[in-house]
From TrEMBL:
<keyword id="KW-0575">Peroxidase</keyword>
<keyword id="KW-0732">Signal</keyword>
<keyword id="KW-0560">Oxidoreductase</keyword>
<dbReference type="InterPro" id="IPR013766">
    <property type="entry name" value="Thioredoxin_domain"/>
</dbReference>
<dbReference type="InterPro" id="IPR036249">
    <property type="entry name" value="Thioredoxin-like_sf"/>
</dbReference>
<dbReference type="InterPro" id="IPR029759">
    <property type="entry name" value="GPX_AS"/>
</dbReference>
<protein>
    <recommendedName>
        <fullName>Glutathione peroxidase</fullName>
    </recommendedName>
</protein>
<comment type="similarity">
    <text>Belongs to the glutathione peroxidase family.</text>
</comment>
<dbReference type="InterPro" id="IPR000889">
    <property type="entry name" value="Glutathione_peroxidase"/>
</dbReference>
<feature type="signal peptide">
    <location>
        <begin position="1"/>
        <end position="21"/>
    </location>
</feature>
<feature type="domain" description="Thioredoxin">
    <location>
        <begin position="11"/>
        <end position="180"/>
    </location>
</feature>
<dbReference type="Pfam" id="PF00255">
    <property type="entry name" value="GSHPx"/>
</dbReference>
<dbReference type="GO" id="GO:0004601">
    <property type="term" value="F:peroxidase activity"/>
</dbReference>
């Protein structure tokens, strides 16, 4: 809706659309507050045209050690353009409400260098637009550490459950397919 409010007056005045409005996939329209920062993650600016893995995370989950594997996946494929976005969520009641504590788990305990947002709602009517679109293109996360592989056009090409480890061959194949996709 906010996009229409911005684009309609531009259309009516005959001016060209901003390039991001015409080129940014629906999935990547918006911003998220960056974990432990005053900055935001502009999803379109940072991820448009790049292969992406989106994962909902939680600090107090049995799957939290997957941070190590997600970081290894990111390091393995980042030179080929892969991005990883971690989105902490307390939707399954296993995340801290303290951003500093979440940051410690991610950055200190597991050495995460990929992008992490502040805690967000990822399920139900209050889900952020990113997860509403991920759900529309695949399925809603059923637990922490659900993984979505997105191609360079902003389309979900595969989703994986929490039980799928970051080094799983099917996940690796989906990541390689996303890397091979044409922007």
């Amino acid at each position: 809706m906010w996009l229409r409010a911005l684009v309609l007056p531009i259309f009516l005045t005959g001016l060209a659309l901003p390039s991001w409005a015409a080129e940014c996939p629906v999935l990547l329209q918006g911003e998220l507050p960056r974990l432990r920062s005053k900055d935001s993650i502009d999803l379109c600016q940072q991820f448009s045209g790049k292969p992406l893995v989106v994962v909902n995370t939680a600090s107090f989950c049995g799957f939290t050690p997957q941070f190590k594997g997600l970081e290894a996946l990111y390091q393995r494929y980042r030179e080929q353009g892969l991005e990883v976005l971690g989105v902490p969520s307390d939707d399954f009641k296993q995340e801290s409400d303290d951003g500093e504590e979440i940051a410690k788990v991610c950055y200190v305990n597991y050495g995460v260098t990929f992008s992490m947002s502040e805690t967000q709602r990822i399920t139900g009517p209050q889900a952020i637009p990113l997860f509403k679109e991920l759900t529309a293109q695949s399925q809603a996360p059923r637990w922490n550490f659900s993984k979505y592989v997105v191609d360079r056009q902003g389309q979900v090409i595969a989703s994986f459950s929490s039980r799928t480890q970051p080094d799983d061959l099917a996940l690796i194949a989906a990541v390689e397919q996303a890397i091979a996709s044409v922007p």
